[in-house]
Design a protein that fits this description.
- The complex is a heterodimer of chains A (214) and B (458).
- Chain A has 214 residues and is of the alpha/beta class.
- Chain A has nine helices and five strands.
- Chain A has a five-stranded parallel sheet, with helices on both faces.
- In chain A, strand 1, helix 5 and strand 2 form a beta-alpha-beta unit.
- Chain A is globular and about 50 Å long.
- Chain B starts with 10 loop residues before the first helix and ends in a 16-residue tail after the last helix.
- Chain B has 458 residues and is α+β, with helices and mostly antiparallel strands.
- Chain B has a five-stranded antiparallel sheet with strand order 2-1-5-4-3, sandwiched between helices.
- In chain B, helix 10 packs across helix 12.
- The radius of gyration of chain B is 30 Å and the shape is elongated.
- The chains are: A alpha/beta (214), B alpha+beta (458).
- At the A-B interface, helix 2, helix 4 and helix 8 of A face strand 3, helix 5, helix 7, helix 8 and helix 11 of B.
């Protein structure tokens, strides 16, 4: 079992989207749990790339193709992750804040939330604060989830919170935040509601928040 | 059907934008021919104003345009990112082809951009064709056409794409006739990335949360040691970790962070003084910096500025500009720092820098304002302080590990420099307190000499 997961990780690192897709399908066929494939295959490979990028061993293009391979793999897993677990009802507006282009983490959160049965409206990357507000109102969202991966962009989450307050919908939405530099104390500082350290706990927290308000 | 080479804009309009048409044409053609990839110039609205001989944007792009889909927006967005992130940006276009872009900046205004690509980074497979068809709004009966057009695209390895992007950035500088102005942006981004990593590291060790929340006094000490020794790379790393901590605990509150940075500046300046920097110079710099600090409005500006200050202070420790025998001194110091843990004789170092021992001795003393042995002792004692903070290392080994054969001699030197014995130092976890400062004033170590305390020279 660990062999095929390792193979997935290796192919992902080389950006072989097609091979990753096929291997993930094969792993599913062998009866390996979707969550295990995601964590020990796809995310494991992406972490290696992240580490190498940090040490200047690989550059942006390698990260791009690895992310593309990751996407190909997660698309296979998505329906499986969605079919397991309890269904919850609720709407989430999610996006990476303005100035930030990192979406791997956000995409994982989205997937995990959908896996819990939530309806997720993905605004993509580099999303201005007004857009979060606009969509939250339009979709009558229960949760607004913001992600930032840089210390330079994390303050932008505060701007989103302010915009939500100004729009007068602060009591109607739960604000969730996440990303590498984001912490619980930052969450309190800017007046957001929930900080979670990873995608799985984000999905759980979202479900809990929605069942509380419902 | 091949289009005309230059058509969208006449030369006068280009010149009005501050671009020299001949220079631009030459650069773009040379680039495109030599790297074997497409290259166009677009204006600030994304319109093609000049294209290489291959005929500009890719065939797929043109078909999509006819379908009412615009690649231009993606190209412009890429350029906007390049502007913000140090002059170059690599991206997948909406249908997944690889492009790279660098802005043309005249004065401080973006006049347009150079767009490189499209290329592929992998052999095309059905997954790619499928993606293109879906994202580009193509019909099923157009799959063959897509395949044909995709086959024409060059396949370039990811490493090379990175290089092509770097090179295009250089071409953009050549065309606009400006120098590389992106350095500070890139350095600042790298610093922020390191800080962010450290925060994440702290988060991953959250079990020891209480630990993470207390200020890392030992890190601060390490930083001061490194500055006093003039170690730039090392001090930068530790500074980023401290900043990570400050961000982590302050929760991003700008006022709090600014206050901590203010403290750090004062601390850094003291470390430089201890390292032997000139008092007047450091106080002058301090005054300048402290009046600047209120001009900053963002955390990243502030932190990048601080790391610049630290470099400046570290430079002051050994202002090698004023040193006549710069090579000799630099090499000697380097030798000492690499070998302090072994037995070092004056002769070894003199030999290493190819001077006679007596001449080297006088050169060293003249430039460093202290003799060779005093300097060696200083390095060894600073290093021993670090080891002493690690309780796993037996006290008896510390002397040996920093190059002293005789432990009682080490203890004497240590006490004279630090004010307390090595054992006390360990016991108090490096908190030397008042005794030390008084002692050091008395022994003249806080004077303007680069390094003092010559009473223990043999």
């Amino acid at each position: 079992m660990s062999n095929i997961l390792n193979e997935i990780s290796q192919n992902l690192q080389q950006g072989r989207a097609k091979a990753v897709k096929e291997l993930v399908e094969k792993a599913v066929g062998e009866g390996i749990d979707a969550k295990t494939i995601l964590e020990q295959g796809l995310i494991a490979g992406m972490s290696v790339i992240g580490e190498k990028f940090k040490n200047n061993e690989v550059y942006v293009p390698q990260v791009l193709i690895a992310a593309r391979a990751m996407k190909a793999g997660t698309e296979v897993l998505q329906p499986l992750l969605a079919s397991s677990g309890v269904k919850a009802k609720g709407k989430v507006v999610i996006g990476t804040v303005r100035g930030d282009l990192h979406d791997i983490g956000k995409n994982l959160v989205k997937m995990m939330m959908e896996g819990k049965g939530l309806e997720v409206i993905d605004l993509g990357v580099d999303v201005p604060a007004e857009k979060f507000v606009e969509k939250a109102i339009e979709e009558k969202a229960d949760i607004v989830a913001c992600s930032a991966l840089l210390t330079t962009t994390m303050t932008e989450i505060g701007t989103v919170v302010d915009a939500i307050v100004r729009a007068g919908i602060r009591d109607e939405v739960t604000i969730m935040i996440g990303g590498a530099p984001v912490t619980d104390s930052f969450c309190k500082q800017i007046g957001a509601d929930i900080y979670t350290p990873d995608a799985a706990s984000a999905a759980e927290a979202a479900v809990k928040a929605i069942s509380r308000t419902a | 059907m091949r289009r005309k080479r230059v058509r969208m804009m006449d030369n006068r309009m280009l010149e009005e934008l501050g671009l020299d048409p001949a220079r631009m044409e030459h650069a773009v053609q040379t680039y495109s021919r030599s790297v074997g990839a497409g290259c166009i110039v677009m204006d600030e609205y994304g319109e093609t104003i000049y294209e290489d001989r291959t005929g500009g944007r890719c065939g797929l792009c043109r078909i999509m345009q006819d379908k009412g889909k615009k690649c231009v927006n993606a190209h412009l967005y890429g350029n906007y990112q390049a502007e913000r992130f140090g002059g170059r940006y690599i991206f997948f276009c909406p249908i997944g082809l690889v492009h790279w872009v660098s802005p043309l900046v005249c004065g401080s205004t973006v006049r347009g951009a150079l767009l490189g690509g499209p290329v592929l980074m992998m052999e095309p497979d059905e997954l790619l064709i499928e993606e293109i068809a879906v994202n580009g709004g193509f019909d099923e009966n157009e799959l063959g056409l897509i395949e044909e057009l995709v086959k024409e695209l060059p396949i370039v390895s990811p490493d090379r794409v990175n290089d092509l992007s770097e090179l295009l950035y250089m071409v953009s500088l050549y065309i606009t006739g400006t120098g590389d102005t992106s350095r500070p942006t890139i350095e600042s981004m790298e610093q922020q990335a390191r800080i962010s990593e450290y925060i994440q590291y702290l988060k991953s060790t959250e079990k020891e949360l209480a630990n993470a929340r207390t200020y890392p006094v030992e890190k601060e000490k390490e930083l001061l040691t490194l500055i006093a020794l003039g170690d730039k790379a090392g001090s930068q790393k530790v500074l980023n970790e401290i900043l990570g901590h400050v961000f982590f605990t302050s929760g991003g509150n700008f006022e709090v962070i600014r206050a901590r940075i203010l403290e750090l500046i004062v601390l850094l300046s003291r470390a430089a003084l201890e390292g032997g920097a000139d008092v007047e110079q450091i106080f002058g710099l301090n005054f300048k910096y402290l009046s600047q600090i209120n001009e900053f409005t963002t955390v990243d500006e502030l932190t990048y500025w601080l790391s610049g200050i630290m470099t400046r202070f570290t430079d002051c420790v050994f202002d090698l500009k004023d040193v006549k025998h710069i090579d000799v001194i630099y090499k000697a110091i380097d030798y000492i720092k690499r070998n302090y843990m072994k037995k070092i004789m004056l002769e070894d170092v003199a030999n290493y820098v190819q001077l006679s021992p007596s001449y080297f001795c006088s050169v060293f003393k003249q430039e460093m304002k202290c003799n060779f042995n005093a300097y060696l002792n200083r390095i060894r004692i600073e290093m021993s302080k670090k080891l002493l903070l690690d309780n796993d290392i037996p006290l008896a080994d510390v002397a040996n590990l920093v190059g002293y054969e005789d432990q009682s001699y080490f203890t004497r030197v240590f006490r004279s420099r630090v004010g307390i014995s090595p054992g006390k130092y360990r016991e108090r976890k490096g908190q030397v307190g008042q005794v030390n400062i008084r002692h050091r004033y008395k022994s003249g170590q806080l004077s303007r000499e680069r390094c003092s305390n010559e009473q223990y020279t043999e």
